[in-house]
Design brief:
alpha+beta; single chain; 29% strand
């Protein structure tokens, strides 16, 4: 397996992200699958991804021509363009002490069958190299134990919690 990690480079690759996202949406999975495999919660549009791509790298992992993972990020400047993230931005602007410059993780996903072998870490590390010195911040549903565990192993630290969309979210940071 020779996996390549790099920024997404074409509209077709952004479309592949949306397809992998669709396969892993919380509402597309059974409760057992969500527990075992984890899930993603936001459904982005191609227009939103293109706007995010214009402001910074959307990292992808390819095994040959197959997309096996992605890490989406956005700057606070895109707050208005991705309204589903407004509740998180509202919490982040009230954080005490104030956050250092940061990049919000819009979503990260590894294809089933490729999980648990380091692709998440590799994507995050490549992204961090490109956006340094920005801190990476994200929120994870407390229901998504697999993601909480993976982010904890990466060194993400909980800085806040919020309730919304029928869930409780841990807000975590990786410096």
């Amino acid at each position: 397996m020779s996996v390549q990690y790099r920024p997404a480079a074409s509209p077709g690759e952004l479309q592949a992200i949306l397809e992998l996202q669709g396969e892993n949406l919380r509402d597309s999975l059974t409760p057992e699958e969500r527990e075992r495999e984890g899930f993603v919660t936001l459904r982005y549009t191609l227009q939103e991804l293109a706007g995010m791509q214009a402001q910074g790298p959307q990292m992808v992992a390819f095994d040959g021509d197959r997309l096996i993972g992605y890490a989406l990020s956005l700057t606070p400047g895109l707050r208005q363009q991705v309204p589903t993230l407004e509740p998180l931005f509202s919490v982040l602007e009230k954080t005490t002490p104030p956050l250092p410059p940061y990049r919000l993780m819009g979503q990260v996903c590894i294809r089933k069958g490729y999980r648990g072998v380091g692709h998440l870490r590799a994507l995050y590390e490549r992204l961090k190299e490109r956006v340094s010195p920005d801190t990476l911040v994200t929120e994870i549903s407390q229901e998504n134990r697999r993601s909480l565990k993976a982010h904890g192993k990466m060194g993400f630290k909980k800085i806040a919690e919020r309730q919304g969309e029928g869930q409780v979210w841990d807000i975590v940071l990786w410096e």
